[in-house]
Amino acid sequence: MSQVDWLSHLLQMITITGQLEVRCAYGAPWRVAWPRSAANEIPYHVVLKGRAIIEDPETRTTRELVGGDIVLLPHGSAHVLHDGSGHTPGPTYSSQRSAGWMLGANDGQGDRLDMLCGRFFIGPPHDRLIRNYLPTDLVVRAMDGDDEEGVGSAANHLANLVGLMRMESAGDKPGSNAILNALSSALFTLTLRAASESDQAPEGLLAVAGHPRLAPAISAMLADPTRPWNLLNLADLCGMSRATFMRHFQEKLGRSAADLLVDIRMSLAANELKKPTISTEAVAGAVGYQSVSAFRRVFTDKMGMTPGEWRRLARGGA
User: The whole model's pTM is what?
Assistant: First the structure.
């Protein structure tokens, strides 16, 4: 199974939509603070041109972003973006565009920044799956590749996608808002693919999916989560002993394979419970549980509510 398989299966289970909110055209000095996002939201920033410093006030960590850099904050952390000069910024002006997003500008005369900012929305209750298995912040670079290998890379596809976003956000053409939001959704998928292909994939799901020997286990669990997987047959898929598989998987994911399998099954169960004609017993069986009481116990532990409570909440449109 390829990396595309695991990512496609993941995103079939978890509904992700995207929305462009503001295109920033700032001259230094400038500074923008973003509060902590809601549980089902992931902020993103795409630096089209120029330079920005992203700062996490909680961890007091900073990182420089340059043209082509894309940053996602899967945990929705509060953060600050600024030009790095340390100078006091002047006022920021925003104007509403008919396309449905804002154009942010200021009167700074220094180095120019062109940046797209928006957020992804995760269908509940899958935000917990994203936050448990993706890093606090995820930075990848969209790069044009001239050689044959570069042309087909995720980084090159990202560069093409960002180019489309830049063009669509430059005017008020019919359908621009719908196109930008659709491109935002694709941005999420391509960013995850590019991160998993990177030599420095961060700890978590992306590190496992990008590991040539561990990837078959991820693909198998996502493709067929109801199968009674155990450590031995997952290790066999990866060509490892049980002990070696456990050690490498834990090191890369930060959690055990059993933890991931349960979380996948509970996310699938949450989707099934939305269907009005399927019983809790049938859902339990559909996600690999022979005992409905065991399923109820695990679901309640993972989701913070019983299957019945989640069903009522989902039907109520909450």
Answer: 0.89
